[in-house]
Amino acid sequence: MMHEQAVIVGGGPAGLAAALRLREKGVKDILILEREHKPGGILRQCIHDGFGLMRFGESLSGPEYAQRFIDRVEEAGIRCITDCTVLDITHDKLVTAVSRNLGLLQIQADAVLLTMGCRERTRGALATPGTRPAGVYTAGVAQSYINLQNVMVGREIVILGSGDIGLIMARRLTLEGAHVKGVYEVQPYPSGLPRNIEQCLNDYHIPLHLSHTVVDIRGRERLTSVVVAQCDERFRPIPGTEEEIPCDTLILSVGLIPENELSLAAGVELDARTRGAFVDEHYQTGVPGIFAAGNVLHVHDLVDFVSLEAEALADSAAEYLLCGSLPECSLEVKAGSNVGHVIPQRFSATRSFTLSLRVRQPLKDVSIVVRQGEKEVLRKKMRKALPAEMIQLPIKAEKLIPGVELEVSAE
Amino acid sequence: MQTSDVIIIGGGVVGSAIARELTRYRLKVTVLEKESDVCTQTSGRNTGMLHAGFLYKTGSLKARCCVEGNREFDQVARELDVPFKRTGKLIVGFTEEHRQRLLAMIERGRANGVPGMELIDRKRMDEIDPSAGGNFAIYCPTSGILDPFIYTIALAENAVKNGARYHLYTEVTGHDRLEDGRHVLHTGKGDFACRWVINSAGLHSAEISEMLGIPGYVIQPVKGEYFVLDKKAGAFAKIPVYPAPTERNTFDTHATPTVDGNVLVGPNSFNVTDGEDYSVRQVGMDGLQESGARMFKHMRREYYIRTFAGARPKRIDPATGEIQDFLIECRDDVPGVINLVGIESPGLTSALPIARRVVGLLREREELLPNPDFDPVRKGIVRFHEASREEQARLVAADPDYGEIVCRCETVTRAEIRQAIHNPLGVSTVNGIKVRTRASMGRCQGGYCETRITAMIREELGRAVTDVRLTNGDSAMFTGYVKGGEQA
To answer: Counting C-beta atoms within 10 Å of the first and last residue's C-beta, which end of chain A has fewer, N or C?
Structure first.
């Protein structure tokens, strides 16, 4: 059996950033386990630009953004085992993994960093009616085929859902000569970022149909058409508004789900709202020594935030490893009115930390208010707040009252 | 023209069981299957139940074949390496009327030779499975669950091992007789001649019967829709839970664990004209959600991972519409034909008993010499996920492909996918790999592994990119390369 101070599960943007920061903080034994042939995670297939604007002040492609971290990880001599899938993590931080070259590995870790990212919601989870022909792809799968395998998934395209990957794929497919007939979104507002609506749809005259969904999928072998319908405010299709659209491909961009199967195996409790772990201000889960950050914790809009969050996690994990423990966080952070979820869900009231949240629906001229009881800790005025955009607020320790819960609301 | 002793039309579970049983004798056996694989229709689109046999009229073929098939299945599953669990079953009731029907069902079960059925109270139900709905229940210990894909595949593979030939994508479109009485079957892939034709065409058995010279049968396809639930829901489901039968002695929606740990909720039941329309309807799913929740307390939306539909080919009396027994016949006025019509539920349980009856009919008409090389044993692909840690380490040491996880949700390795791609039947579809390995059957539904599986199909079989298919017919996955992609 091997022993490591820190085992990092997943060598995507979160895992790489966490590894580097751990090393900077003086942690020696760090091991990244990556199931793909190369580190970089989902960025490897994101060949469009727009990454790193915040962090590096320039617009990079996904692979370029990842490479900056990969180079530094290599320079720092941090070990990364690729082609290696983690099979199990126990509550006691025993990690079992398998690789074609190394066989079955058992690693006892002092700390485990969960950075597995997320997966896509599928048609099965939506329970969309109809047949099951070829030609129905999630946006990320289509992106992988096109960008990593150079194969084309179809010619006449309908996209369901306005998540960012779906928008990126609308543009990508158009550039490859496919005809994207429209993007249909069940909500009355887009779920992707405004800049992607502008650059991926409007610039290419691809129509976005809000409050619409796909109510039938047709074709026995390859997809032949979908039926779309307008939806009411409770997302129910309105009878009589159905329209059949001939197409050979349906791309689904209907949400991302943090990939927490290993976390559950380790006994980590999940938040039903984020579908990621409950964490405290140190990004520590309910299991001591197991930390989580990035898309495995809550789905981010920008990779720059993933890197930052992973670095904050690493600061705490380094302290845990070098000092043996972290301050107790027994106070709850509550999502108040108009707030979908908050990270972290627990805090100590003794230290500063970053609060991440998303609003439930688009809001104009709104204040994000953080309170402890009656006391206002922070108020941030925003001209608009969108569910597509993560909001982050620095919470200063000196503003906090000991022993009182926090509530965040958008008013 | 290819010549055989026996041609079986339809390679489903019954056709494949017949093929396998016939290879016990010195016969040249050919199976013509119109689809891409042996389990794409009724044989793969069902609950995967090993039925006990209490539902069917005493003395009927359905009752006799089912009880016989149930009794021998432990051995069959061992011989053919089929995932199987004898779970028992609960048939639950809420009202006094239900109780009366359940008592009548126990009586029928006894008459049919089903052992060990008893009426139990809620307390016993809680001991067996607290997530089951209902106030009381029949407990039937002999019911079980099996993997219907693997069972069908195993029968077919064992038949092939013992000399049978399978032709996929080969639809029978016409029939003629030669002067010597032999048959010629016309297909899209040429003509096939034989002395015996066995009609095991399932949903199309009435059409094939008529083509062979026996008109007058009517098949009513009865469709059912299902939900597949995540293994997280499966953790709560220990035993199949069926509702008390309806007045017409049929079952409404039930909740059944699968051998792999998922839960199936369904089927509903309605007549259709086109048995091969496997689309699922919104109204059907809404109904399943409601009725499923009565049987299974953990029927929640967050557990949905897939829906599917299947159709039972019921033979009905054309005059009354009444559902008929299995039909297995060999008529003197239509020589060289063994005709199977209306093989529906419990066809999965009854497949081998039906096959033995077919062999019996053949044997009455000609002498069959035993095949000295017949081997009843078939080994499936060794599954990494089911192996102990020590076995896993040995598997990877012997074959490094066992160390590469391709499907993360179901922990399926490259070695298993590779073996599935080179399967004995020559199935090359993405769906064929799926049912053989479980890759992409998990909660991400291929989000991680599908790109890897299609790449492996292309590599291992040297397929062009436009020649990778999802399932039946022209279900091409790709339209070609991206700009300049051929060179990459």
So the answer is: N
Domain identity same for B197 and B160: yes
Looking at residue A399, what DSSP letter applies? G
Do A80 and A261 meet the contact criterion of CB atoms below 8 Å apart?
no
Q: Which residues does chain B have within 8 Å of residue A140's beta carbon, measured at their own beta carbons?
A: 447
Stretch A146-166: mean pLDDT: 97
Residues B153 and B269 in one domain: no
Query: Is residue B291 domain-shared with residue B176, that is, in the same domain?
Result: no
At residue B224, φ and ψ (nearest 5 deg) are -140, 140
What pLDDT was estimated at residue B94?
93
Q: Do B141 and B226 fall within a single domain?
A: yes
Peptide bond before residue A344 is cis, with ω within 30 degrees of 0: yes
Cα–Cα nearest to A29, from A90, A78, A101, A81: A78
Please return the burial class of A130, using the count of CB atoms within 10 Å of its CB with bins 0-12, 13-18 and 19+.
buried
Specify whether the backbone of B394 is left (phi greater than 0), alpha (psi in -120 to 50) or beta. alpha
In a domain? residue B337: yes
Q: Which of B51, B167, B183, B254 is catalytic?
A: B51
Q: Which residues pair with A80 in a beta bridge?
A: A32
Check if A125 contacts B (Cβ < 8 Å): yes
Indicate whether B344 and B433 sit together in one domain: no
**Full domain range(s) for residue B401:** 384-467
Is residue A172 predicted with pLDDT exceeding 60? yes
For residue B309, the chain A residue with the least C-alpha distance is A131
Q: Quick one: pLDDT at residue A5?
A: 98
Task: Report pLDDT digits (tens) over B20-64.
Answer: 999 999 999 999 999 999 999 999 999 999 999 999 999 999 999
Q: Answer whether B444 sits within 8 Å of A122, measured CB to CB.
A: yes
Q: Do A176 and B455 touch (CB under 8 A)?
A: no
Looking at residue B252, what is its pLDDT?
79
pLDDT beneath 70, residues of chain B = 487-488
Position B477 in a domain: no
CATH number, domain containing residue B181: 3.50.50.60
Number of domains chain B is built from: 3
Judged by CB atoms closer than 8 Å, whether chains meet at B279 and A218 is answered as yes
- Does any domain span residue B254? yes
Instruction: Write the DSSP string, B275-297.
Output: TT---B-HHHHHHHHHHHHHHBT
Using CA atoms, how far apart are residues A295 and A17, in angstroms rounded to an integer? 13
Cβ-based neighbour number of residue B116 at 10 Å: 11
Residue B57 is assigned to a structural domain of this protein: no
Asked if B389 and A120 come within 8 Å (Cβ–Cβ), the reply is: no
- Burial of residue A172 (CB within 10 Å: 0-12, 13-18, 19+) is buried
Instruction: Say if the Cβ atoms of A127 and B445 lie within 8 Å.
Output: no
Helix ranges (DSSP H) in A176-302? 194-196, 261-265
- Which residues of chain B from 378 to 437 reach within 8 Å of chain A, CB to CB? 389, 392-393, 396-397, 400-405, 408-409, 411, 414
CA atoms within 13 A on the CB side of A15: 32
pLDDT of amino acid B484: 87
- Contact list, B279 vs chain A (CB under 8 Å): 129-131, 216-218
Q: How far apart are the first and last CA of chain B?
A: 44
Q: Measured between alpha carbons, how far is residue B253 from residues A61, B43, B100, B146, B226 in Å?
A: 51, 19, 20, 19, 9
Residues 282-311 of B with CB under 8 A from A: 282, 284-285, 301-302, 304-308
The residue out of B316, B351, B376 marking a domain boundary is: B316
Domains of chain A: 1-121+255-326 (3.50.50.60), 122-253 (3.50.50.60), 329-411 (2.60.40)
* From B403, B455, B475, residue closest to A98, measured CB to CB: B403
For residue B52, the Cα-to-chain-centroid distance in whole angstroms is 17
Count Cβ–Cβ pairs < 8 Å, chain A vs chain B. 142
Q: Indicate if B233 and B209 belong to the same structural domain.
A: no
